[in-house]
Amino acid sequence: MQIPFTHLQGAHCETATIASLLRHQGLNVTEPQVFGIGSGLFFAYFPFIKVTDQKFPLVSFRGPPGSIIRKNAKRLGVRFHDVTYKDPQRAMDDLDRALDQGIPVAVQTGVFWLPYLPGAFRFHFNAHNVIVFGRDGDEYHMSDPVLAEPVRCLRKDLLRARFSRGEMAPKGRMYYPTLVPKDVDLRVPVMKGIKETAFNMLKIPFPLLGVKGMRRLALTVERWPNKLTPEMAAMNAGHLVLLLEEIGTGGAGFRFMYGAFLADAARILGIEGLADAARRMTEVGDRWRDFALLASRTCKGRDHAEDPYPRLAAILRECADREEAIFKDVRAQVR
Amino acid sequence: MEDLEKELRVLIQKSCDLDDARMATLTDDSPLVGPESPLGLDSLDALEIVTAVQRQYGVRIDNQNTSIRVLQSVRILADFIRSEGARA
Lengths: 335, 88
Known about the structure:
Largest sheet of chain A: 6 strands, antiparallel
CATH superfamily of chain B: ACP-like
CATH architecture of chain B: Orthogonal Bundle
Helix content of chain B: 55-70%
Structural class of chain A: alpha+beta
Shape of chain B: globular
Order of helices and strands of chain A: HHEEHEHEEEEHEHHHHHH
Number of helices of chain B: 5
Oligomer: heterodimer
Distance between the termini of chain B: 18 Å
Strand content of chain B: under 5%
């Protein structure tokens, strides 16, 4: 049994999955629109929240897990059935039941256990979203936004991926829309998404969030050579890249996607100035990539010029200044 | 071996500080990044390659899924650059 489903290759699994499910139900939104309406762009630096075994501080380039789907649901008037399970058998039975009813279902998985993915992608990451849209006996038809074409996956592998253990364990989570309005005026959700993102980046009165968080991180990076051994400082630079990096994007991917959203928003809202903001956001993405590249070279000992840390801090401050200017302009245009 | 593939091998060698002996293990169809790569390149090396490709050919690889796809091998990366029309 296979549900007629249009596979969509996307930039990020969560946004691509939501866009695919909504498009299947007749709501024609793109992946960047889902990202923008869900106010996905963010910056947070939490020195007091430690991640990994080496206890490095948390840096995030996007909103908290689950916020994009929640905000899209609210702003687009969509309802999702979104559940987790303790019992793997029940989780698979409910998936089969939904498929039998002709419903494509998104499942959260641990990528390490998905055998169809290339080796470079099979690291321990438990928040990978894919869509299951059919089943032949023990084999499931899957639409994984990483890949160009749909794939098949054995039941035992899918079950293992849905109940992968560790940080952000999926706990069998599956979700699908139960109510999707056919005609949505995108102007209101787009406007709300932009306003919230601009507020989050500029106005949250907390020094570790938005552009203020970028500047605080710049200050920290600048002080590493005085506070840490050269080896630890280099390791910290590497850690920073690993938090930002997504196999070649250097953390810039979300900035590029937000640029695409602003370009769409310019058309949807009929505000020409947002197209200029879109171009500038893409350029900032390139600077984030430069930052990640320098941090990566520092970590690997490939940067032979002296003192990379002030240069890293300078790029961070430049990104903060440029994003501040962009969001101030955007706020002025969507008032 | 075509010109673009040759150029990319030089670009990869330079970007990732690889010696001739290691480069000799790489065919145009070998995986570039990840555990199956004969070069042993990781995601930080991928970032080096992606940035160097953008600088040299004006092609922006703007998300991880495209990265994963196009960094599968030298041949696939070359095909991607050709399809983006970066070379005449």
